[in-house]
Amino acid sequence: MPRASERRSAASQRHADTIRFILFEARPAGLTFVQLVRSGELTPSQTRAGLACLRDIIAERGWPPLIWTKKDGYRFCTEPAELQAYEIAIVREKLTEIRRFITAVVGPHVALQPKGRWIKHLNTQLGSVESTLDIIADFIDAA
């Protein structure tokens, strides 16, 4: 099955263009999700699809990253310090998600099936991901 970025619909691309235009008009300020919905006259679902598609387009074309902060909402950002703060927040969020998944799902599965090949592999790989994210978060704290 193709990746989501490879199976974008024409509709989501139109929604992405609408959102991009709205965000360029609002620069340097950002917009909340509700403001994007209202400004683009899109449904929440269309706005989510447009944001996902816009992130893929940004990556393909080398445009400035689209970030979201509680204070400013969605906006394009080129400031290195702000991008690093956003990346730190995302790394810590993913680290928390992985740790909770390991302790709440994978750990009990290992206890139920300690010799299972699949669960051993999953546990090992997720432990590696957790360790890598932890190193990144620690590096950021040390900097």
- Largest β-sheet summary: 2 strands, antiparallel
Beta content:
5-15%
* Subunit organisation of the chains: single chain
Q: Note the run of SSEs as H and E.
A: HHHEEHH
Mean pLDDT: 91
Instruction: Choose one word for the global shape.
Output: elongated
- Number of strand segments: 2
Distance between the termini: 41 Å
Radius of gyration: 19 Å
Strand order of the largest sheet: 1-2
Q: Which regions contain 5 or more consecutive residues with pLDDT less than 50?
A: none
- Name the helicity range: over 70%
Describe the structure.
The chain is mostly helical and 143 residues long. It has five helices and two strands; from the N terminus they run αααββαα. It has helices at residues 10-26, 33-40, 44-61, 80-112, 117-142, and strands at 66-69, 73-76. A two-stranded antiparallel sheet has the order 1-2. A hairpin with a 3-residue loop joins strand 1 and strand 2. Helix 1 (10-26) crosses helix 3 (44-61) and helix 4 (80-112) runs antiparallel to helix 5 (117-142). The longest helix has 33 residues, at 80-112. The chain is elongated and about 55 Å long. The model has no long low-confidence stretch (mean pLDDT 91).
